[in-house]
Amino acid sequence: MRLPFFVYGTLRPGECNHDLFLRGRTVTEEPARLAGAVLYEGPGYPYAVEEDEGVVRGELVTAAPDGYEQLLAALDRLEDYAPGDPANLYERVARSVTCDDGRVVQAWVYVAAPTVAAHLRANGKPLDNGDWSGT
């Protein structure tokens, strides 16, 4: 599936990985939010942990069609994600995100892998406002 990406950490505009990975590779970037997740502080980057309540704020990024597969592979590497790998820090999952204009869009989201999520729930520091760039 060629879904857009919901980014909420270092890939957001103005953050360190945006220019490295997304500049010139997107056709749109717009504010959006992911319901059903809580944002936790990480070691220099955040983790979205799926929970019943909570909202994570970020951007919906639509990749340029001609470079989609390359961008997907680059983001998977950045997020230490490999399908089925139990050592993943993140899992890439398709989730509904809501744009500021009210549209609901299916997007790829990198959420904390189960082991990481369990550790964060037990010992992590959630960000109350769900917005990493606002910390």
UniProtKB/TrEMBL annotation:
Record carries keyword Protein transport: no
Name the UniProt record assigns to this protein = Gamma-glutamylcyclotransferase
Gene3D superfamilies in the record: Gamma-glutamyl cyclotransferase-like
Residues forming the Gamma-glutamylcyclotransferase AIG2-like domain are 5-133
User: Could you tell me the superkingdom of the organism this chain comes from?
Assistant: Bacteria
Q: Which GO terms describe its molecular function?
A: transferase activity
Pfam families per record: GGACT
Keyword annotations for this protein, in alphabetical order, are: Transferase
The protein's matches in InterPro entries, at most eight in alphabetical order, are given as: AIG2-like_dom, GGCT-like, GGCT-like_sf
Q: From which lineage does this chain's organism come?
A: Bacteria, Bacillati, Actinomycetota, Actinomycetes, Kitasatosporales
Q: Which SUPFAM superfamilies match?
A: Gamma-glutamyl cyclotransferase-like
Asked if Transferase is a keyword of the record, the answer is yes
